[in-house]
Structures are given as C-alpha cells and as structure tokens.
C-alpha cells in the first residue's frame, strides 16, 4: 500500500522491485501533479503559462500526464517536438528552443507549426531572410549572469554557448529591421538549481529592459532553474517567494507595456525529479582494508548524474530500513570508476537487498546508455495507486537492432 500521497514507502518500492525486476525506474504521477499545482499556486497572481522541459524525461506517458495537467511542452530537438505531437500536444503548445542546429531543423519545426525560439544571430538572420514576417519567432538572450549549482548547468554566463548576448541588441534590431522579422517573445534561461530569489528578479529586470526594444511581444519566458532538495536540510528554491516577487514585478511592467503579455516558465527537474526513484539490487558486499563496497546491478550507464555532475542522490536500503547504520561506498558494475555514493551511512546492506536512489526522475533514464553492452532498465509509472509498466527492459535484440552484419 502507498502510505502517503506524495512519497512512496520502502516496502512498496521493494514490492515493485520484486514484481518488475531491477534496475528499475519508478515515477509517481501524484508527486508530479503536486509539483505542478504548487507552481500554479505560486504564480496565481500573474498571467502565466508553464511549458514542461521534456529533456528531463521524455517517456510518452509522462508527456501525456503533463498535457492532462494543462502544461505546454518545452523541446530542444526536432525529435522531442515530434514526441510532443505524438503525445497529443497542439503545435502552438510546443516551444522549440534548439542549440547549434542548422536552418533545416528550424524549418522542419516551422512546417510542424510549433513555436520557435532562436538563440543565435546567424540562424535569426537566415530565418528572417527566408520567411520574413510570415512566421513569428522568439529570441533567446544571454543575460551575462553566472548562476546555477554547477558550471556544466550554468547557461547564462558570458562564456556560455547559449543565447544571443544582451550586448548585441543593436545587431538583433538590425536583423529584425532588415528582414522584417516578427519577434513575438523573449527568452532567458540562466541555469539549473538556482535557489536565490534575487537571481530570478535580476533576470526579470534584464528581460523588461530588453522588451523595451520590441513593441509586439506576446510573452516573456524566464526559463526555469528552480532547485529541488536532494537530502534532508538541503536548500531549495522558495518557489512561493519567487512566484510572489516575479508576479509583482511582471504585473507592474505589463501595465506599462503597450501589448498584452504572458509570463512563461519551463520547469523540468522541478516537476519530475522528486517523483522518481531508481531501484537497484546489491550483488556483492566487498570489504577492503579501508572501505566496504556495495556492488549493485547497475552503473553510470543508467544514472550518470553522480559521475557527471557530482550530484548527490539519497540512497536507502528498502529491504532492511531499520537495520544498523554502517558506512558504505555504493558502486556500479561498469568497467570504469563508477560511484553512486561514497562514505554513505546506510542501514546494513546484505547481498540481495534492494537499494533505492531518490530524486531520480530527472536526467536519469533520459541520459542512460548501453555502455559495456549493458541493457537499459525498465520504467514504471504509479498512478491512482496502480503500477503501470511504461517501458520494457532492454533485451539482447535491442543491442543488435540497428547493427548490420557484413562479416
């Protein structure tokens, strides 16, 4: 039984591990819904729209859940655009913000009728020369702000590849004028895991200043970057404070702007991270003179965030939640240094126990691979108290599916 509407209990997760096998990703629909409604409430005083940043998790069932909640879709590739259309999103509810792609991919998005957000001058000019004012676009700006929990996920600083610098506004205006381009929105995304309200207010003020250069904007898109807690006591974005502060600033600016405006956000991790669990099995306990290792049936091929971002994921022994706490290093089975957690206090782990890693809904399965020819895990969605298999575990056939034998 599920004992809480937003947190899955140890024994329930262990039951899922027995039923579906491990490694296993589990997502809790009610927790996603709770996060979405929290956002709605936080920004209830402004004219706001949310577009789920689906790069966090693109399983089509998650996309359909977001659509049911009333969210739009933020996409970064033409394939994500097509997944969104397959999930039932209206083209005008899909925002396409690619990076480093050719005009061909931008044109393909135009043909599908979705909203287009352009982040470099070259493509902006090419698009304007080809389509003029026949198809509106928004522009992604670089605010020259360093923010976020890790340099790899900070996207608004001076050396970031993302966006057109705010200091190039005169060049943007020249392109718009020369090509008769219709710019209907501005966008800024400064990074992920931003907890300071002041950063969001600073970005908003920059956005308001840039908006003064355009007279027919329909929306201002502040991206996202809301931080979620990864362990007890971990700081998080005070979303209620952000909502109140940004809404007040936006409403004040909207009264002065001569065109009706909407406020947009693109939450991804904020919506799905805490709803996700990654369950593995302890294959072996290996004691050395300095460390007790728990070797599990997974690796960074399934959850790369600890290795890639030095990210922390709480690890619990859901098979023995009341056992004596001991110090362990939880490591994977990949033939390379492969650590999920070092020097962790975990209730005594025995070979065969199931361990759950928390906050695994965002960039978990989405960044997984078949490194070492390991099979990708299954995915399960919990909704209305029922467990639904939403992706089968890989088989050997999947490893060979696109290979062509010529020898």
Question: What would your notes on this structure say?
Answer:
The protein is α/β, with parallel strands linked by helices. The chain has 2 domains: 43-272, Alanine racemase (TIM Barrel); 276-400, Lyase, Ornithine Decarboxylase, Chain A, domain 1. It is 30% helix and 23% strand. The protein has helices at residues 10-20, 29-42, 60-69, 78-86, 103-112, 121-131, 169-179, 197-211, 239-256, 269-272, 305-309, 396-400, and strands spanning 24-28, 48-53, 72-75, 94-96, 115-118, 137-142, 164-165, 183-187, 219-221, 262-265, 276-287, 292-296, 315-317, 325-331, 339-347, 354-358, 378-383, 386-391. The strands form 2 sheets. Strands 1, 11, 12, 13, 14, 15, 16, 17 and 18 form a 9-stranded mixed beta sheet that branches. Strands 2-3-4-5-6-8-9-10 form an 8-stranded parallel β-barrel, surrounded by 5 helices. Helix 8 runs parallel beside helix 9 (239-256). The chain is globular. It starts with 9 loop residues before the first helix and ends in a 7-residue tail after the last helix. Mean pLDDT is 93; it is low at 150-154.
CATH topology of the largest domain: TIM Barrel
- Quick one: CATH class of the largest domain? Alpha Beta
β-strand percent reads 15-25%
CATH architecture grouping of the largest domain: Alpha-Beta Barrel
Supply Rg. Answer: 23 Å
Helical element count?
12
Query: How many structural domains can be distinguished in the coordinates?
Result: 2
Order of helices and strands: HEHEHEHEHEHEEHEHEHEHEEHEEEEEEH
Compute the average pLDDT: 93
Q: What does the main sheet amount to?
A: 9 strands, mixed
Q: Give the proportion of residues in helices.
A: 25-40%
Distance between the termini: 53 Å
Q: How many strands?
A: 18
Q: Note the quaternary state here.
A: single chain
In CATH terms, the superfamily of the largest domain is: Alanine racemase
Q: What is the 3D shape? A: globular
């Amino acid at each position: 039984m599920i004992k809480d509407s937003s947190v899955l209990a140890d024994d329930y997760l262990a039951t899922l591990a027995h039923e579906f096998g491990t490694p296993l990703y589990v997502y809790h629909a009610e927790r996603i819904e709770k996060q979405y409604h929290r956002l709605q409430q936080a920004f209830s005083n402004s004219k706001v729209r949310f577009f789920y940043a689906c790069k966090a998790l693109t399983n089509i069932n998650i996309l359909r859940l977001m659509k049911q909640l009333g969210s739009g879709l933020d996409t970064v590739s033409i394939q994500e655009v097509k997944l969104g259309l397959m999930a039932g999103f209206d083209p005008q509810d899909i925002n396409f913000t690619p990076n480093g792609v050719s005009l061909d991919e931008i044109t393909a998005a135009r043909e599908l009728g979705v909203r287009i957000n352009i982040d470099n001058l070259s493509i902006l000019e090419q698009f304007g020369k080809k389509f003029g004012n026949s198809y509106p676009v928004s522009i992604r700006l670089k605010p020259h702000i360093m923010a976020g929990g890790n340099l790899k996920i900070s996207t608004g600083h001076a050396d970031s590849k993302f966006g057109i610098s705010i200091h190039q506004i005169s060049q943007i205006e020249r392109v718009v004028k020369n090509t008769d381009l219709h710019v209907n929105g501005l966008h800024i995304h400064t990074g992920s895991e931003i907890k300071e309200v002041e950063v969001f207010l600073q970005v908003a003020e920059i956005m308001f200043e840039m908006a003064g250069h355009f007279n027919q904007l329909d929306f201002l898109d502040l991206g996202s970057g809301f931080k979620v807690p990864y362990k007890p006591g971990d700081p998080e974005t005070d979303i209620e404070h952000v909502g109140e502060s940004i809404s007040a600033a936006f409403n004040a600016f909207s009264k002065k702007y001569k065109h009706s405006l909407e406020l947009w956000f693109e939450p991804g991790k904020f919506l799905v991270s805490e709803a996700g669990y990654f369950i593995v099995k302890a294959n072996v306990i290996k004691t050395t003179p300095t460390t007790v290792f728990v070797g599990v049936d997974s690796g960074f091929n399934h959850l790369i965030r600890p290795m890639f971002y030095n990210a922390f994921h709480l690890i619990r022994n859901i098979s023995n939640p009341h056992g004596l706490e001991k110090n362990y290093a939880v490591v994977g089975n990949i033939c390379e240094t492969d650590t999920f957690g070092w020097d962790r206090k975990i209730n005594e782990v025995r070979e065969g126990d199931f361990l759950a890693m928390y906050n695994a809904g965002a960039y978990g399965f989405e960044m997984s691979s078949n490194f070492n020819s390991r099979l990708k895990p299954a995915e399960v969605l919990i909704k209305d108290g029922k467990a639904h298999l939403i992706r089968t575990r890989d088989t050997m056939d999947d490893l060979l599916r696109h290979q062509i034998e010529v020898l």
